[in-house]
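Troubleshooting: if your tokenizer reports a length mismatch, compare your output against this known-good record of 311 residues.
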Amino acid sequence: MTLFSEAFEQTRGRFNGLSRNLRASVLVIVAFLTFAAMTVMLRALNGAIPIIEIIFVRQFAALVIMVPFYARLWSEVRVPQRLPLHLMRGVTASGSMFFGLSAVVMSPLADVTAIQMTEVLFSTAFAAVLLRERVSRVQWIAALVGFAGVLIMMRPFAGGLALGSVLALSGAMCGALSMVAIRLGAHHDRVETVTFWQGLVVMAIVTPMALLWWVPPTMEQWLLLALMSLAFAVGQWLFTAGLRMGDAASIAPLGYLRLILMTVIGWLLYAEIPTLATAVGAVLVISSAIFTIRNNARRRGDALASPEAQS
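Known-good structure output:
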């Protein structure tokens, strides 16, 4: 135990000695590895468990894990200031989970990962329409380039649309709407309040359907579901911590690493060889997404540095 404690302290010391953005990058990369493991476990279920049941088990486990945090802040958590926004986030989060997990089961991992990155581009478009945020011509061009990449990957005029690609795109749209809901209520409720009410709404939506289509898992399947729930909770914590610690412009390029990771897993485990269309479309999508994130980070920095922002 002493050797383990010493090794842990040395590792923590080295980690704390890194720059802030490098520490954030490490957390995000570990989160990507955790999510990748969750994807492998999802596919290991081989469609034997309905997606809606998986979401139910995962969300229930996440709520249980967070109980101590909710209990400590219960006086604030139980009385949200913007309940309609929490309801909207719960509905859109449910759609994002269902469409995203379904796409992972149906389509090559490289295609799904690249298409899901359009969430950043949809967020830009929705922010302009719903939040009345100013979007520059360059940002609209970047968004159009990204959507052109999606069309290249989905090949809608070459024999029809693949259902998995449509589901991945639908998941990205739901995720973007969920982000808009967060931004609308960003200054009203704590993170714990947001996650509690989102989880509650998701459970209210998926529970009746999960019970209706419930398939009793075997012991092996219960083990996979438990490990998936743990991976989901840990990955979300690592990813959130990384985003809060580092600059968005520094973390954005890691999207390339996520795509490479999922492509390698798809190739090694499932013999999924990316097509030229996937490669070209992915480059366009990720480049436009990274440009958008960097541009948004730069605009926020300029706003904070302005005299009006400091007054």
